[in-house]
Design brief:
This protein has 610 residues and is of the alpha/beta class. Helix content is 64%, strand content 10%. The protein has 2 domains: 322 residues, ABC transporter type 1, transmembrane domain (ABC transporter transmembrane region fold); 247 residues, P-loop containing nucleotide triphosphate hydrolases (Rossmann fold), CATH 3.40.50. The protein has a 6-stranded mixed beta sheet. A 4-stranded antiparallel beta sheet has the order 2-1-4-5, with no helix packed on it. Strand 4 and strand 5 form a beta hairpin. The relative contact order is 0.08. It holds the Pfam family ABC_membrane. It is found in: Cell inner membrane.
């Protein structure tokens, strides 16, 4: 177990009574995560810092040159031109060294940043590809997008700029102060007389920053999620004239974020404005020139030495602000690193060391128990057998566990107890790639990628030919719609092609037809379809399910009356199962559901007739 994982274990084990200690442990976890994520850049950052030290040393040379040239010009007798030109040459060389060394330092750190971001994004994508599919159902797309884009981006300044700029910000005034103390120890003290006041105020401002940043990050996640939701459903929203209501969640999330930010940042801005006066350039100039005048009158230093020390002093404000800004950036980066590390530490879908291949296309649920959170059981000892080539329908009220049970077959989640078997083999013992060659699924929430329509269908089988793609689309009753697009099958989804819910379902069905899996899970495949689309989807599905083992979920009972077995779930338990006629004759829960369904259909037909 790594130090980061140990720190997370401590955070998870913290009792509710120790919230303050838990926050400290969480901060420790974030710092360790940041150190671990930045480890690959450490060597190059150290090399860049050495270049920057050389650049910082060269930065002080012009100040020394001014003092030396001033001494030469103010000396009794004619000026020593040789000495003056020598100093000028040294200053020019120093300026060249500063430019080259400083540029090299930034080039090194930017290269390190590019490599780090590429590596992290590849690791995140790899991790996302190995997580259980059910993991994505418990998180908003805004949260995932924030991790891949925003959180990785938070590390940019820290890697590409902070190490070099911090080194320069600290080393340049440090070398300058050494020179000031060399000139006279009083000039050294005078150069930094106002800095302690600023630092004291800044440290006080840094308290409780982590808690506030966590609040803001949660606010950003909510805003991202509501934006994605609004954009995804904007066509439906505008069609039904509910734009105002639909974007209210986004407006509420934005208002909450703004209020929290203003509440936190308002007092900080006022105090920081006052504290910044202490290191404002005019204030430092006034302090150094006034003190320098006193020192000159006292005979301790010369005027040209006061000028050199004053020029050094005015480099301090930029240095202090840079270090303060970097400290703030580091806190943000640490929080982002903590979130990234938690994602990277999320347990991936377990893969069997010696994977097995299913013998046939049968499905068996053996005393299956399941819980999403480990505390509240969703499925209670479900046992079912689905012979190969049969159609089994799952029905029941909302929350009865239908979708949960169905998604255990393609292993969106793993059971808490019992087993789900395909062809006599536990799905946990089947390699994921092999599992998805056996199990296909058409879900109610269809996702089409921003690529061509053909490539969206070809996700079912990457090596499919164009003719096979067209054949699948034709079977799914979506070929004519695709051909009506500006670029046909080459049309890009959401650019050239905008599909309705029912049309997107048929594209998804074409994908499943092309994949040609012997087992198929259908979850509310007609949920978002209008009557015309539903009819076409049903025609496509009737062709899709031929010869396959099918597990279908449907609220519209009329679509599953011919199923080989209808399973009624309630409260995560099987309460009835059998064929349509058998269940009607039993007069149980299915019969009552059928009565409600037929009554609703009759009423709907009457309303249409009017």
């Amino acid at each position: 177990m790594t130090a980061v994982q140990t720190a997370q274990t401590d955070v998870d084990a913290a009792s509710p009574e120790s919230a303050g200690d838990a926050a400290k442990r969480a901060a420790t976890y974030d710092k360790l995560a940041l150190q671990q994520l930045l480890a690959p850049t450490r060597a190059r950052s150290a090399r860049a810092q050495r270049y920057q030290l050389l650049a910082s040393l060269a930065t002080i040379v012009p100040f020394i040159g001014i003092v030396e040239i001033g001494r030469a010009l103010l000396a009794d007798g004619p000026p020593d031109t040789t000495r003056i030109w020598t100093v000028v040459a040294v200053v020019i060389v120093a300026l060249l060294v500063r430019a080259v060394a400083g540029g090299a330092a930034l080039a090194i750190t930017h290269a390190a940043d590019v490599d780090l971001q590429r590596s992290l994004r590849l690791r995140i994508v790899d991790k996302l590809g190995r997580l259980p599919l059910g993991w994505f159902g418990t998180r908003s797309s805004g949260e995932v997008r924030k991790a891949v884009q925003h959180d990785v981006g938070e590390l940019h300044f820290l890697v590409a700029h902070s190490a070099v700029e911090n080194t320069g910000a600290l080393a340049t005034p440090l070398f300058g102060l050494i020179y000031c103390f060399y000139l006279d120890w009083r000039l050294g003290l005078l150069a930094m007389v106002t800095v302690p006041f600023y630092i004291g105020v800044y440290v006080a401002l840094g308290r409780d920053t982590r808690t506030q940043m966590e609040r803001l990050d949660r606010g950003v996640e909510r805003i991202s999620a509501t934006i994605v939701e609004f954009i995804a459903g904007v066509s439906v929203v505008k069609t039904f004239g509910e734009t105002g209501k639909a974007h209210k969640r986004f407006a509420d999330a934005a208002d909450e974020f703004n209020d929290g930010f203003a509440e936190w940042i308002g007092p900080l801005v006022r105090v920081k404005a006052i504290s910044s006066i202490f290191i404002d350039t005019p204030v430092l100039l006034l302090a150094n020139l006034a003190g320098g005048y006193w020192f000159v009158r006292s005979g301790w230093v010369s005027p040209i030495e006061v000028l050199g020390a004053t020029l050094v002093a005015v480099t301090i404000p930029a240095a202090v602000l840079t270090v303060g800004y970097s400290a703030h950036i580091k806190r943000q980066a640490a929080a982002a690193a903590g979130r990234l590390q938690r994602l990277l530490d999320t347990p991936a879908l377990a893969v069997a060391r010696e994977p097995q291949v299913p013998r046939d296309n049968s499905i068996e649920f053996d005393d299956v128990r399941f819980s999403y959170d480990g505390e509240h059981t969703v499925l209670h000892g479900v046992s079912l057998t689905l012979p190969a080539g049969t159609i089994t329908a799952l029905v029941g009220p909302s929350g009865s566990g239908k979708s949960t049970l169905a998604t255990l077959v393609p292993r969106f989640h793993d059971v808490a107890d019992g087993a789900v078997r395909i062809g006599g083999v536990d799905v946990r013992d089947v390699a994921p790639a092999e599992l998805y060659r056996h199990v296909g699924f058409v879900l109610q929430d269809v996702q089409l990628l921003g690529i061509s329509v053909a490539d969206n269908i070809r996700l079912g089988r990457a090596d499919a030919t164009d003719d096979e793609v067209v054949a699948a689309a034709t079977a799914a009753r979506i070929h004519d719609r695709i051909m009506a697009l500006p670029k046909g099958y080459d049309s890009i989804v959401d650019e050239d092609a905008h599909f309705s819910g029912g049309e997107a379902q048929r594209v998804s069905i074409a994908r499943a037809i092309l994949a040609d899996t012997p087992i198929l899970v259908l979850d509310e495949a007609t949920a978002f379809a209008d009557p015309d689309s539903e009819a076409q989807i049903q025609q496509a599905l009737s062709q899709l399910i031929v010869g396959r083992t099918v597990l279908v979920i449907a609220h519209r009972l009329g679509s599953i009356v011919s199923a080989d077995n209808i399973v009624v779930l309630d409260g995560g338990r099987v309460v009835e199962q059998g064929r349509h006629d058998e269940l009607l004759a039993a007069g149980g829960q299915y019969a009552r559901m059928w009565q409600t369904y037929t009554a609703g259909n009759a009423q709907e037909k009457q309303e249409v007739a009017r």
